[in-house]
Design brief:
Helices cover 73% and strands 2% of the residues. With 267 residues, it is an all-alpha fold. The radius of gyration is 21 Å and the shape is elongated.
Length: 267
């Protein structure tokens, strides 16, 4: 259900940006466009749930085969571009609000950021396929081993011997780095608003009126930033926590699993 809502939202954003020459010329909207395009891909495979998992796997609803499982896992990894774009969006807000970067200044780093995100997620998907590391992972097909967590036991890994390393590189490390950057961005934005508010209170007359107007515009941008970033926290922290506990202990936390199934597709 939440994957459907996410898919609809991303399609709407994509359509609005592509139809508007003004929005297509905006760095902010192009970041949202990139995020939405990747989210569409991932939302589709998340909507499929356990269906792509090979039908011989004892999971209720599994109806696929190795090819469908691999395809779902690949696009799940490609979907890691979404939190990276959230990170990019946070950096964009800080540059624009705190450091007063102009649109032309931000454009200098925009396309390199698009390229870095594309290379990172694509290399992750290709590497996972090449090492046979995309396998059923309870909730959906993703980076996993067969048997599950065989690296932590004496069992021989049939497939996905490097899955722990790949998860650490493409999911956990990137996830924690993104959370740190996003948190730092929110703190910087909050401090910026407080500084502007403090400075505005020192003046009177026309200067005060101008500062209040600037503050109003700045506050609108900050509200937008908080909306996107809080949504990011809600979508990714439960899933990341669930996978970390699973990898560390070899056991699944049922409460976190249900929360992750509900929140992660809502990105």
């Amino acid at each position: 259900f939440t994957a459907t809502l996410s898919l609809i939202g991303s399609v709407v954003i994509t359509a609005k940006v592509l139809r508007s020459p003004v929005k297509r010329a905006s760095v902010h909207h192009r970041i949202l466009l990139g995020m939405s395009l990747y989210d569409i891909l991932q939302s589709v495979v998340l909507f499929l749930g356990v269906w792509p998992i090979p039908k011989d796997v004892p999971i209720l609803g599994a109806s696929g085969n190795t090819a469908t499982c691999t395809a779902q896992g690949f696009f799940m990894i490609i979907g890691h571009a979404v939190p990276l774009y959230n990170c990019f969006l946070a950096i964009h807000y800080v540059l624009k609000v705190r450091y007063r970067f102009l649109e032309r200044d931000i454009r200098r780093i925009e396309w390199p950021m698009h390229f870095v995100i594309f290379v990172f997620v694509t290399s992750g998907g290709v590497t996972a396929i090449a090492t046979n590391s995309i396998n059923p992972a309870e909730l959906w097909c993703y980076i996993a081993s067969i048997p599950i967590n065989c690296q932590r036991s004496e069992e021989e890994c049939i497939k996905g011997r490097h899955s722990t390393l790949l998860r650490s590189l493409y999911a956990y490390s990137a996830g924690f780095l993104t959370i740190i950057i996003v948190t730092a961005a929110m703190i910087a934005l909050y401090k910026t608003v407080k500084d502007v508010e403090t400075n505005a209170a020192k003046y009177s007359g026309r200067r005060l009126k101008n500062d209040r107007e600037n503050f109003r515009k700045t506050r609108q941008v900050v509200y937008q930033a908080f909306f996107y970033l809080i949504s990011f926290y809600a979508a990714y922290i439960p899933s990341l926590t669930y996978r970390l506990i699973e990898s560390a202990t070899g056991d699944s936390n049922n409460i976190l699993r249900h929360v992750a199934v509900l929140t992660y597709p809502s990105q």
